[in-house]
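User: Last request for today: this protein with PMV, please.
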Amino acid sequence: MDSKPTQGSAPGKVILFGEHAVVYGRPAIAVPVIQVEATANVQPAPAGSGLTIVAADLDERVALSDAPLDEPLALAARLTLERLSAPEPDATLTITSTIPIASGLGSGAAVSTALIRALARFLDHELKPADLSALVFEVEKIHHGTPSGLDNTVVAHAQPVYFVREETMDRLALGAPLTLLIADSGLPSPTGEIVAHVRQKRESEPAHYDALFDQIGEVTNEARQSMEEGDVDTVGMLMDQNHELLIDLDVSSNELDDLVETARFAGALGAKLSGAGRGGNVVALVEDELAEEAGQALSEAGAKTLIRTQVAAAS
Ligand code: PMV
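Assistant: Here's the final one, the structure of the complex with PMV:
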């Protein structure tokens, strides 16, 4: 086989609407965050050495032949080889990432996507985003049991998406660009635990929780329309509404509510927690002129890191 070095990368992501409700079949909207990314490089290695995966930032080195079945990097590589009916190549695959881990920015999905993309290229295959997404979904199950599939979908397509579990994946064509500030509370956001908490609450109060999921679904559908029409003010207002509904779901925290309030007070058009909640990130929609000021206010209010990103309008 002609083995030349190859590379693959994938962006982070942020959920704008519909987290949690998406687990129960309601729609969600998420967008890529291109300021952060995971990258995988594959280099040929001497014959007989097999595949070694190096997670440079974590100081981890995994030989595919003796990695446990549930080791996520090895699983991503195995699924790729299986999908392409390819034998294990002699190569070293090195992963690096600038995406903060476990903070709701899709770090796990991006690392898997970059790895699978780079390894497939090393084997002379260019996987389609939908195929990539399906493989990454299998790896995501290790991270948090019953993922909706939203993370792998937005990260593998690297496009704004409107997503309904096992049903719909529409690329969103924005009528106007959106400038977003993503502020990390610095608190943990253990997705699996929080999803399990919501499941328990729903079991004890099904009618109440299903009504909340329905309302979140309606907000998400209105948001889709406003995003496509370029009605940025309405998108902001709907983010505020989505945050209130997430408070009702019991997945917010004082720290997240404070950051959301701070962003609004500094002139954001809307703000909400993003991802599983409790900790992790809030996302604020701002006008360009106010982005600097709002960012400063968020940092002063305790945001540990701040990412400013723009989601482009359709050309
Ligand atoms: O915390 P994150 O960004 O991985 O997002 C979790 C989103 C949930 O809707 C809560 C779970 C899911 O699988 O979609």
